Write the structure tokens for this entry.
Amino acid sequence: MKRSFWNLPNSLTVARIALIPVVVWMLGDAPTREECLATAVIFVVAMLTDIVDGYLARKWNLVSPLGAYLDPLADKLMVMAALIMLVPLGWVPAWLVLILLGREISITGLRGIASQEGLVLSAGSMGKIKTALQSTALTMLLLHYPTLGIDVHSSGSVLLWIATFFSLASGLEYMMLYLGAVKKREAEEDRIAAQGLGPGAVIEGGSGESS
């Protein structure tokens, strides 16, 4: 029986994507305190639904190739949109955003290559820390105005610097995971090939081990 795409997890994912133009519009021109608060709330809700839709898809066995593709894409698009819109406001330096976006594009490409080669790269500890720090930093930067007596903008800027460090570190971690997976696959292929040589080859080589 063919499953419908419009289940609850996928609907939440599409809703996150639909909210991106709203965030862009609200940050378009010198946002007021109220607009900043609304944008921060939308961003937090989007990040929370990112957790919820993945959990529900696994719990209800609704995981699909399209859903698995759109889920991380929606998260990246929301983060990228927020970062880019903060640049013309002067709230985030352009070069820092360039580093973060470059990392995201590079890792997405690397995971695509790994997928084509039948390799799975799971998120490492550095990547999870980066995501948590980056989401918190962006929420504070989107609030911008002092909140509850706290200079959230300055706090968010510091957190974003820390998140950038973990972003680069997690990028290196992904690269090491990819190279390790490739090496492991090649070793397995060599082992299978060696077993396929037959008894004669083992006898001829003595012990059958590489010298």
In short: The chain has two domains: 1-90, 91-196.
